[in-house]
Specification:
Blueprint lengths: L2 E5 L4 H12 L3 E6 L10 E5 L5 H10 L2 E4 L11 H15 L2 E5 L6 E3 L2 E2 L8 H19 L5 E6 L17 E3 L15 H13 L6 E6 L1
Parallel strand pairs: 1-2, 1-4, 2-3, 4-5, 5-8, 8-10
Antiparallel strand pairs: 6-7, 9-10
Helix pairs in contact: 1-5, 2-3, 3-4
Length: 213
């Protein structure tokens, strides 16, 4: 039985990933800072913080995939990037994988231009987007042998537009995926389907990939 640990299970993305994993019969260790998570069969609840190395090492020993579904900023402080070395060390020592829920902002929309550098990108999201881009860059620059994957959603993604589970989507690389009308969207449930597909059948090793309709 595969066990995954989802850090940030009380959030929008973490909750969807945990639910999809449980739906498929995976065991889930769900981590939140408050512990305020509903009981479900197959779910073990843990209270803790991603900055706690003892917790992270314990999770990596007890799960085959460590899923990070948290903000990259703490207020205005880009804290998550500083934790990349310890996260990689934990999964490397335990022979687990690291799966990071990233942002769409660092995807390219034209040659050399990332989405968060485009003039229409919402200013209130720019700091978080750049902080998540720094996490990706730290993963890519690491000399650790740890296996990791980083998933960027479509531009239209979040609790403000939850959508539905269809099981149909496209998987891409570093370029923002859009439909024929220029729309870029993925529901929370279908993002989770793609994410758990990667957990069950690994195809992306030490790389970023993206998902959208």
């Amino acid at each position: 039985m595969t066990t995954i640990a989802v850090i940030g299970i009380s959030g929008y993305v973490g909750g969807h990933i945990a639910n999809e994993a449980l739906r498929r019969g995976l065991d889930v260790i769900g981590v939140s800072r408050t512990g305020n998570v509903a009981t479900q069969p197959g779910l073990t609840r843990r209270t803790g913080d991603i900055a706690d190395p003892t917790l992270i090492n314990d999770l990596a020993r007890n799960a085959s995939v460590l899923v990070v579904a948290t903000h990259a900023l703490n207020g205005d402080d880009p804290f998550l990037v500083d934790l990349v070395p310890s996260l990689l060390q934990a999964v490397s020592t335990s022979d687990a994988r690291l799966g990071v829920v990233g942002g769409a902002g660092s995807l390219f929309v034209s040659s050399g231009t990332r989405l968060f550098d485009s003039p229409d990108f919402p200013e209130q999201f720019r700091g978080e987007a750049k902080a998540h881009a720094a996490v990706l860059e730290a993963l890519q620059a690491s000399t650790s042998s740890a296996d990791w994957f980083y998933v960027s959603p479509a531009a239209g993604f979040g609790s403000y537009a939850p959508g539905e589970r269809t099981g149909h989507f496209r998987v891409g690389g570093d370029t923002l995926l859009s439909d024929d009308e220029g729309n870029s969207f993925i529901s929370g449930a279908d993002f989770a389907v793609a994410f758990v597909d990667e957990i069950e059948t690994p195809r992306h090793h030490r790389q970023r990939w993206s998902v959208a309709y």
